[in-house]
Here is the input.
Amino acid sequence: MPKIEGDLAEALCVLRDYFEQRQIPFALVGALVPALLLSSDIGARETRDADHVIKLQSWAAWRDVIAELEGLGFTRGHGEEEHRLYFRTAEIDLIPFGIFDGPGEMLIWPKSGNRMNMTGFREVFHYAKPTEVTPGVMLPVVPLWLFTILKVVAYLDRQFPRDLHDLVYVLEHYEPVGQSPRRFDLAGEVDGLTYETAGAFLLGRDVRLNASGKAMDLVESFIDHITDEHHSVINAILREENRLFLDVRRQAIFQLIDSFRKGLA
Here is the structure.
């Protein structure tokens, strides 16, 4: 578990108490998820920010929530990041699910006009499980297979390389707790899999078994476009890792993605 303390730990407690009191469904969905469920090696940012999804029906309800949170010590950002709140040094991204302004499950932020594809978010409230995020504090946290879907959706929306970095981290480290023999078994049973890539295959299989049809189509379409190790997505990952000219890493990332593809099939 990452060392969550100080302002972020306090912010998480305040948010939990507020959402539970107001009976607003919520869950953690951002970079904090793999740090909590796998390890804290993913990076430093998860110890200062947390992404929440909450279920609301209107922008009026959203404005009420923001006003009430400001009364509890949260402040708004000054840019066009309408989802961003601060609790002293802690950053909280708050995403409302259930307010659809565009075609399908599309959220359009009222100030910036930015569009946000909400594919996969409907499942958040069904699959999130209570998880200890800091000593004595339990919050609903999405499973890693759903985190993976949300990261693909996020990257397609905004093209942030850090979303790809988070995705690759899960591909590399995925394996449900308590089922460690599965990697060894798969490495011998599935053609082309190694112990290092078997977790990515398992992740793909869990996405296939659990994802909605729309989410599955979106993930498959994204992955199917990555046909070789020189694809722009892999270049973006290597730049984010500062390893653009490391051929061994380039090959390893493509093998992870290819194993994930096999799991999806």
Remarks:
- The chain has two domains: 6-142, 153-264.
- The two ends are 32 Å apart (CA to CA).
- The domain at 6-142 is CATH 3.30.460.40 (Beta Polymerase; domain 2).
